Amino acid sequence: xxxxxxxxxxxxxxxxxxxxxxxxxxxxxxxxxxxxxxxxxxxxxxxxxxxxxxxxxxxxxxxxxxxxxxxxxxxxxxxxxxxxxxxxxxxxxxxxxxxxxxxxxxxxxxxxxxxxxxxxxxxxxxxxxxxxxxxxxxxxxxxxxxxxxxxxxxxxxxxxxxxxxxxxxxxxxxxxxxx
Amino acid sequence: xxxxxxxxxxxxxxxxxxxxxxxxxxxxxxxxxxxxxxxxxxxxxxxxxxxxxxxxxxxxxxxxxxxxxxxxxxxxxxxxxxxxxxxxxxxxxxxxxxxxxxxxxxxxxxxxxxxxxxxxxxxxxxxxxxxxxxxxxxxxxxxxxxxxxxxxxxxxxxxxxxxxxxxxxxxxxxxxxxxxxxxxxxxxxxxxxxxxxxxxxxxxxxxxxxxxxxxxxxxxxxxxxxxxxxxxxxxxxxxxxxxxxxxxxxxxxxxxxxxxxxxxxxxxxxxxxxxxxxxxxxxxxxxxxxxxxxxxxxxxxxxxxxxxxxxxxxxxxxxxxxxxxxxxxxxxxxxxxxxxxxxxxxxxxxxxxxxxxxxxxxxxxxxxxxxxxxxxxxxxxxxxxxxxxxxxxxxxxxxxxxxxxxxxxxxxxxxxxxxxxxxxxxxxxxxxxxxxxxxxxxxxxxxxxxxxxxxxxxxxxxxxxxxxxxxxxxxxxxxxxxxxxxxxxxxxxxxxxxxxxxxxxxxxxxxxxxxxxxxxxxxxxxxxxxxxxxxxxxxxxxxxxxxxxxxx
Lengths: 179, 552
Description:
By secondary structure, chain A is an all-alpha fold. Chain A has 7 helices and no strands.
């Protein structure tokens, strides 16, 4: 399986995993330890997810423990997908060390932003940066799926009222959108 | 296969295979008329007490902590494998268990009209339907009242028969905007017709608008065969249900009539048989086809009732794609509770047959729009396409949250003789039964229709002021994903070109009826369950009359 295909299927299965809600129990574990990631890799993932969805008036990906979702998604994925993700993470770690002399998690916010801007595939990406860009694209999808399926993401950040028992469904009440 | 078969003595009046929309309806309609039925289902009863219906994502955490697990409705393909040609996958979705796919179905309940039913006779593609709307209409009326269908009162040539609808749910703002945009193009969006009980039906609990129907309904507020047909059938004391009974073959006598059904216990693998005077097959299109093709004998060398060689051929479902985006006019507004009845509240009926529209292909398409409005599905499905990262990304996701739309057009795939299910005697399942191979592809007619579907969606979105976020023109969803398989055991007037009569009875085997989606000569652009229910009711009325006449 090609790297990009592996990462694409990993993102898609993460979306399904978020919808299935089967990872939420991980948030309640007091002594959680990653099943797939090493402690050092987990630190990088925490920093990366927080760079994608940072804390604002509401907690970001770090506060919502999205790293646990990603570790769970990796445990749930096939070997090719896992390998593609960890290779991508290694690419990013190597480039962090080479360019900033330190891991991504311990580099300055401006350095993090510069590296991520370079591999954010919404803009032009140099051929040499393609492995990083493919990884970042997958990680972004997984981070969004993870974050917006938590109480923090859906309720606190997006304002979902969480009500699942209504006597009637009101629908659209905007006068300008009727008829 | 060599095996020693010990024939049990009891002969049931009717054996029904499958307990979903078709088999459940058959069992319900026969038992209430006093006819004893033994029902074989490949799975067990799902326990509504265990469903995760009215559970927010964040409450699910506590449930997991208590050791609860959501029920697993869908069959793992490894348990019943099938083959496809290299590079041509077919994604088959099956539920083995009481109620079948009606436990988790999309609930879209659209009547076929004469636009659909008379079209093959007009355009000459393959065989005509042997029935018209007038033949099914009385049964549609009964089904609507029995199962509870919400919808509008806006009947048209393509969507008839609203007399018994429950009130439809109000549209969401994003749906209103799409509807208003489409109206400027003379393309109607009408209240959807779905089997959600927006009002109580014979004492049932009405819909709570949790929007989580896909997890199964723990209060049985939408039609499910296991909740609304099987209990009433059991109450007659005329129904025996055998669970975990994976049917392999229908057994015939020297004259070619069905005498028994062979099945395997899903848990132990033990081979069993049950004898009956009549067999009603409702295992869903693909599994019924597997059973019929595996039921070979000296009188039926090509599969049961398959002298015409049409069984397994003409597999047809629908092409679809998913066009996602957002409506800037709603962006930045407050987040509303848009859960509703879990899926769209407005539907775009087919329009391409009407005056003023041209097409260079046969048949047509309609469109659904689930995940439209403030939906977590929208947040997942579209947000990753928003450029950038960091605070700007987070703000933009929040801004767009109330404004998502998704348009999902469904287009009819024509029946083609070599879109085909076959059985492979060289590849046996764990019971030693030949597995199936599905060879299916879409062709020029579907490619032309896809272009029109794309043009239509693009025009509507433009007129509604929408912006595409996740849309690649021409990217079709995988074959099989519409989960509306038809055509492989079709009804027709000509026994040389069809397997079943207009009453779903086999031309060649008078004591076998096939009552699921495989009986449809065409797929149409519509969701089939309502029609499956109506035709299964009609077919088993016919069966009951034949039994009374003593002709079986």
